[in-house]
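Write out the 3D structure for:
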Amino acid sequence: MINRAEYVERRNKLAKKLSKNSVSVVLSGEQKIRSNDTEYPYRQNSDFYYLTGFKEDKAALVFVKKKKKVRVLLFVQKKDKKLELWNGKRLGEIKAKKRILVDEVFSSDLFEEKLKEFLKDKKKVYFDLDSEDARAKSLKKLSKGFRTHESISAIVQRMRLIKSNSEIKLIQKAIDITQEAHHKAMSFKKTGKKEYELQAKIEYIFKSSGAYSDAYTSIVACGNSANTLHYVQNNKPLVENALILIDAGCEYEYYASDITRTIPVTGRFSEAQKELYNMVLDVQYEILRMIKPHAKRSQLQKRSEELLCEGMIRLGILKGKLKKLIKKQEHKKYYPHGIGHWMGIDVHDQAPYKDKIGKEIALKKGMVLTIEPGIYIDKNDKTVPKKYRGIGIRIEDDILVTKNGCKNLSAKIAKTVREIEALGSR
C-alpha cells in the first residue's frame, strides 16, 4: 500500500511546478453508463488517484497558488444517508480532511461557487484541457478571459514516469498474481474447451487473489485468432495442436501487470512452432540486455525490427537482403506494433515518450515498461512456408529500469519451451 505521506509528497512536488498566481484543478473520474440505468464498475481517474489515493467520484483536487504559498483543497460528496443506502458509504468532508491531509475540504456542491472565488486575481489556470467532464467545461467558461491555460495532466503524467518503491511493490504484487494465473492456464487441460473457459480460469485467480479488476480485457486467442492483435471475442474452440496467445494481466490496488505468453493447446510445441517461438524469445532476450539508463525506446524498437527481420529471413518467411527489407518495411507485415510501452497505474501508462521540446525521453532508473516482440502470420498468407501459417506469437514481460541495467519483474513466469511444456505435461 502507498501511505498518506507519499501522496502529500506528490502534491507538494506538483505544487512546486505550478506558476505563481495560478489555480490548478484535477478532477475525479466520472461514472460511465453501461446500458440504460446501469453503470460500469467505477474506476478513479488515474492522475487524481496518483495525487490522493481517493476512490470516490464527483471529487476534485484544487491547488490555489499565490507567490510562494499554496493551498491544497479537496471537494468530496457530502454525507447523505438516503443515497448511501443505494450506492454505499461516502467518506464525507470531515473524515476526508483527516485521511487525505489537505488544507481544506468542501462539499462537491460548492465546487463552482468556490472556483469563482479562487480564480479572482489569478493569471494562469491548469486543468485537463481535453476533459469532457461538465466541471471542466464550467472551468473553461469561468476562465475564458485568462491569457494562459496549461494541461495539469501533462505535468502529473511526467511525474508518473518514475515509480517509487511502494509503486514497484504494488506492480510486483499484480505480477505475482498474474504469474499464478498464467501457470494455471499452462497446466489446465485445454483440449475440447473454449477460449472463454480458459479466460475464466485466469480471471478467477485474479479475483480470488485480491485483484478485483483486470488491467485490461483479456485476450485468449487460439490459432489464427492470435493474428488479430486486439482479439477479445474469446469464443472459439481450443483446437488441438494449435497455439494460444494469452495476453492477460490484473490490476492490484490500481497498479497494472501486462503479461503475454503463447502456449500449446496440447502442452507440446511442434517443431515449426518451436522455431518461430524461439526466434521471438531470442529477440526479447537481446532487447532486455539493451535496457539501462540513457537507452532510448526508439533504439529498442529499431533493434527488435532488425532482429525479427533477420529471423524471418533465416526461416524463409521473408526473402531478400536485410537492409532492403527494412527500408521497404516488409517486416511490418508480420511485426506491426511497438516493442513496448510505459506501465503503472494505467496498463498503458499515460506518461509521455517525448519531453516538452519534442525530444525523446531516455530511460531512467525507476521507469517501468513492457517488452513484447511478436510475429503474426495469417493462415492465408501463401508467401510464407505452409508450416508457419496461422501462427501468432507474442512474448511480453514487465521491466523495471535499474541503476545499471534492468530487472524483469515477471521473470518467474514460465517462458522457455522447456518450462511451458513442463507445466503443460502435469
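The chain has a mean pLDDT of 95.
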